[in-house]
Amino acid sequence: MANPGYGKRSAPGQRPRTAHDFAHLPPREAAIAAYLDRLAEGADISVKTLAKQLPYGQCALGTALNRLQQAGHLRRGRERVDSESGSSRWITRSWFSRTAQGDDWWADFTRGDVPEEPSVRPRPTRSRAHILLAALGRTAPALSLSEAECDALAPMLTDWFARGASDEAVIRALSDGLPSPVHHAASFVRARLTSKLPPEPEPEPAPRPPRPPRRLLECAECRVPGRPEALPGGVCKGCQGERTPSRPTTLPSASVIHTLSDGIRAAMSLEREREDRTPV
Q1: Do 140 and 178 contact (CB within 8 A), yes or no?
Q2: What element of type H or E holds 88?
Q3: What is the pLDDT of residues 191-200, one digit of tens each?
Q4: What percent of the chain has pLDDT over 70?
Q5: How far apart are CA 64 and CA 32, in angstroms?
Q6: Residue 156: which residues within 8 A CB-CB, separation 6 or more?
Q7: What domain range is 52 assigned to?
Q8: In terms of DSSP bridges, do strands 88-96 and 74-82 run parallel, antiparallel, or are they unpaired?
Q9: Same-domain status, 132 and 106
Q10: CB neighbourhood size of 155 (10 A)
Q11: How far apart are the C-alpha atoms of 193 and 200, rounded to whole Å?
């Protein structure tokens, strides 16, 4: 494992693991990608550490990681992390994605424009209100309700919970001071849910929206940070062989050089004459 706060970070939006996730990669890169995919969060995936665990040298591993980056499975960069004390610092990050992502997706990721967790549709379960009403008969047998009656009365508890009422407070409001007998439990519960509804609480201030993450990608070759659009495939244009040609230097003409030389010699002669006239 890497030092706390460093190491592997799984990118969001990945599809479920299958046996063909890395079939599009060469055998060596596919084997390394499958190994990285199985590592835990925070695992050290530096070249030196991987060379101790895998049958490849550091040079081969460096090349393979660059190819995984070009294929969209890996990005390396920096992320600004804020501490509880209010200070912040930039730390190195290595983001791995089982699902290959394009440059545009990684650019959105650096801006925090992709969901951090895939959306999962929750399974239908009985609501808190339904469970409370179904258990009411154990506290007050005279208020035992059927399944259909619980379904019909449960929406009335929404306002109670929204106004901060606990389960115990609802049960006390419904069961304290019961008449004898209770002729119709459902009608009695409905009447008490209406008449004993607590007042609305003071509105709470709206929560501040979360700040977007601050991330920087860097070139896989020269480690220079840059904007995502300047790092296609995770490599800057300079390292891709698109360096800007240097401008040729234009030398001055011979006449200009002679003029400058004559001026320098005249200045030197004048300085010597001044030194000769200066009394010792």
Answers
A1: yes
A2: strand 88-96
A3: 999 999 999 8
A4: 88
A5: 8
A6: 129, 190, 193, 194
A7: 8-110
A8: antiparallel
A9: no
A10: 12
A11: 14
Residue 108 in tokens:
């959105």
In terms of Cβ atoms closer than 10 Å to its own Cβ (0-12, 13-18, 19+), residue 84 is: exposed
Tokens of 41: 């969060």
CB 68 within 8 A of CB 106: no
- 68 with 32, same domain? yes
| Token output for 248 | 């040729």
Domain boundary among 195, 213, 229: 195
Q: Number of folded domains in the chain?
A: 2
Q: Are residues 21 and 74 in the same domain?
A: yes
Domain membership flag for residue 222 = no
Q: How confident is the model at residue 54 (pLDDT cuts 50, 70, 90)?
A: very high
pLDDT digits (tens, 9 = 90+) for 191-232: 999 999 999 887 778 888 888 888 888 888 888 888 888 889
Residue 69's H or E segment, with its range, is helix 58-70
Q: Are 105 and 95 in contact (CB under 8 A)?
A: no
Whether the predicted model's global pTM rises above the 0.90 cut? no
Cα separation, 122 vs 188, in Å, equals 34
